[in-house]
Amino acid sequence: xxxxxxxxxxxxxxxxxxxxxxxxxxxxxxxxxxxxxxxxxxxxxxxxxxxxxxxxxxxxxxxxxxxxxxxxxxxxxxxxxxxxxxxxxxxxxxxxxxxxxxxxxxxxxxxxxxxxxxxxxxxx
Length: 124
Prior knowledge:
By secondary structure, the chain is mainly α. It has one domain (3-119). The chain is built from 5 helices and no strands. Helix 4 runs antiparallel to helix 5 (101-119).
């Protein structure tokens, strides 16, 4: 897989969830089997905004040539996804989400592994 393809996949995943969390957080959280209230509304909407930021970052960087800036973007996304993987896995294992939560865990695992792969020095 090329980094451009990974950026595009990440952008589409963020497009699928970002606006939904920003504008309709209750419906998604109910679908995942978790409670919804004023505090979770704020957190979900902020997370939706983060996903929209990731959407623009990955979409606009998809054609970036190999550079220090592109490597910084890959590091940022790797760290973001790794932290989100750990957090989501902890919530899932504690029973905070229903079985659909495993899908979120696997999405973060996929992106963590893929962005981590692109951090490994490649032979030219």
